[in-house]
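Protein Record: Sequence and Backbone Structure Tokens
======================================================
Tokens: labelled as protein backbone structure tokens, with as many entries as the chain has residues.
Question of interest: how does this chain fold, as expressed in backbone structure tokens?

___
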Amino acid sequence: MKSYSQIFQKSLKQIILFGLPVLYFLIAVSFYLKTYDSAQIKITILHIGGLFLFMSWLILKTEEGDFSFFKNKFVYILPILLFLLSGFLSLSISPFKLASFTEFIKRFIYCGMAFIIISEFDSEKKLLRIKNWLIIAAYVVCVYGTIQIIDYYFFPPLPNKGLDPFAWRQAFGNRIMSTFGNPNFYGDFLIVMNPIVLALFLYKRRFYLLFLWVLIFINTVSTYSKGAWLGFAVGILFFAVIYAFVFLKDRINKKTLSAVLITGTLIAAVAFFGIFSYSKKRPDSLSFRVFTWLSCWEMINTNPVFGTGIGSFYLTYPAWRRPQIFFIEGKHNTESDHPENEYLEVWFDEGIIGLTIFLLLIVLIFTLGYKNMVFLRGAKGTRDGPLAYIQLGVLAAFAAKLSHDSVCVSLRFVSSGVVLWLLIGLTISISVQLFCAKDVQADRLNRAVKTVIQIAIVAVFGWLIYFFAGFFHADLLHSGAIQYSRIGNWDAALATYGEVNKYNPSYPMSKYFKANVHVDRWKAGDPVTAERTFKELWKLAPNYVQSKYLAGTMYSKMWEANKKLKEEYEAGGKSPEVIEKQEKETADSYNNALKYFNEYKQIDPIYPLTYYGIASLYANVGNFDKAEEVLYEHIKYVDNLKKHPHDFWVEDWESRRAADYAETYSQLGNLNMYQGKLEPAKNMYLKALELSPEYIIVKKNLAVVYANLGDNENSNKQWVEVYKINPDDEDAKRYLQAIGAIPK
């Protein structure tokens, strides 16, 4: 009869052996559209499922009473342990502990899953179980991706309904994303499955594998992700070279070897040609990466040896982002979470030490993978067994993924990161099976010690699971709060935003949105609460998106309110002490408005509203020269982008924002007209119209200036042009009717 311990061990093993493949399947296929981030469910599955499986494995090892796994396989797992240690040391020095903690936990789970694969998936049968679940996942996502392709090309566009039943239908136009919420993330999964499925087809020659590979090819093309095309090309080329020189060299002649190599090279060449052609059509994609990499390189140089802290890139980057990024994106309220290059991010986060460990881990996997294949295809190996083909597919997928992650989606995203560590675990597992002696279990722990350790493990992991499960609830609440904001239900929105950080204390967006609601609503109590919320936000993310601009707007409102209150106090005969106190509050709010506007101007030097806010503050206190100087600063800043250090990539950036610069010239015209400087005002309005010829407001103001200058002919001409642009314009109709000049 089996003992309690034996039954317990067997149960834990079954949980791990079935749970881990299912976990990979769920991460691939899951999405949830009621959270703010549709991929939050993938993160939650990793947090809960990954921590639970790692906990189960540690309990299993404790129950077995033997930790010789770490001793006997030390050489194989040392780079993983070092990379985990690098992450922990990086966490310890990080100035952003909450953000770094959440990133470190992901690495902790990834490494734990690699340990589980190496330790428990120690046979061909067990590894094939993972393979089977991956094949099922690939079929699910590819079928849905194909549905998205058919939906785009053969069904009516939005807002009509189509074949894709979900709310995110055609979110990226003709670029499909399947269950991943982003074409780049989807492409990352496809390029991993591409060589794995191809290798299994060569082993089994089954039609369902060939059909799946065709689906993968079609879906990869339809992501229109140049990074995915690059990964696909590298995967195929790597696969062809290894297959030819390792699998075929002793079986077939040189002509066949050449045919395999030529076929792989041609497929790769077509992919590279597609990348080149598509880059010419979408050059912004390339320039975006170049400027992001340049910014990241500058960030790296602030602490190149030890790094700034794991997971700290997105919190640090806003202060280093090149202005060209704003021209390229056309937006100012977005942020880049990652630098589109995993190697640069590791270097920034963990310094040259962490990067060296990461590169050593990569070299180890390539070395072990190649050694595994040579052995399996040699005299001592099982030449026609599945392990050699699995290793071929895994190693080609590893090469494809690493190439993709040098130009695109970061390994920090769950759907991408979890797959890399699967490939690492599978390669080391095969090596251990081939070259490492089996662990000899020795029950060295008594029952009491085992129980104490297991309780401690459950307590620690139970708390982590509870903590990170809250992140999903926080994302759900955040989505609800946004909906309340959109319908103007400010009280419900604020209450819900307030709940978000109880469940996810590292989430800066809810703080930013909460402050925004207070500034928009602006009733009694809002200024103080908004001020406090900004301070809480900046502890999490010092330069979060447009928070400094929003703070400047808030203090501008406070200055106007304080100035009005001061005037009321003076008119009401309040005591000098009360008036003096109010005068100080007025001055403080004015200075704070200037302070935060100027801080945001340093972060985003092309955002026009910042300059308008500063100019308005100066103009309102009669400092018109300073107001004019600030507006000219906005216009002239673009010239800096033609000089070092911005001259690496020079474009006609100004033309992208013609409307912005037209508005700035309009503001200068208004400022001059307010001061009675009609000729300068006319010149500014004319410059505005050069950039935006149909700017109706400017035409109206120019018409007024011409009239005041006595140039009625040009004044009438402007009113006629306004009418032609918009025949319903009341001002134009009234003026032209009065002079009897309505055009027919």
